[in-house]
Specification:
Length: 274
Amino acid sequence: MARTTDPTPPADADAAGAPVLSERDGGVLLLTLNRPDRLNAWTPDMADRLFTLLREADGDPAVRAIVVTGAGRAFCAGADMDALSGISGAPIEVDGRSMAAPAKLRKPVVAAVNGPAAGVGLVMALFCDVRFAADDAKLTTSFSRRGLVAEYGAAWQLPRLVGRGRAMDLLLSSRVVLGAEARDMGLVDFSLPREDVLAEALSYAGVLAAECSPRSMAAIKGQVLRAHETGFDDAADEAAGLMAEAFAAEDFAEGIGSYLERRPPRFPGLGTHE
């Protein structure tokens, strides 16, 4: 996707010290985890900022697709070890559902895993809708080697992506897999040279933003998420009802019209209350 300067960039687009940077190019919002000196290690401030930006993007009609990546040479090396050392032995409260935020948005979220992704950083990528990874990116669950458990719904999501046996392997051993192996097992969807990862992820998101109906993508994400827990009959019955609604909606008319007229579609954006 060609990078252009957005005439109305987010307020923090140039805030170099922010834990997450935000930059919009047309309908694509790029969110960059921004602690490169610590391999973008996860902190509460980073989590709060990322989830705030995701919620805002979901309600912004100008945003149609989101890409998440890391600054520097890493995606996210997991939780900040200095912060973890301070809570050893202390009772804490954890929102175990928070990492599923990308999956629960109505808009597509693409992970550009440009380098190491470990622990909570890997889990966050797993809940994105599509994952691009560098061929040499090192991916690991890491939990069993830190005396932890499968955090933030990883035990639910990982088997659905790679199967029970591979999920058990990755969780029990915490072994490191590279991007190419991760692609072969379904942990990521595309494996590319490191220098191409972000550009390809942005290009992919650009196609979603320019050519795909935001309402269709929102409906499809909801269908896939619910289908995790339902049988075929429930999923098919839901699809039948949604199909009837889609045939009567303006996006269907625009999709057919743009095809017949051989022009790009002009789908409306998805706002807060839709």
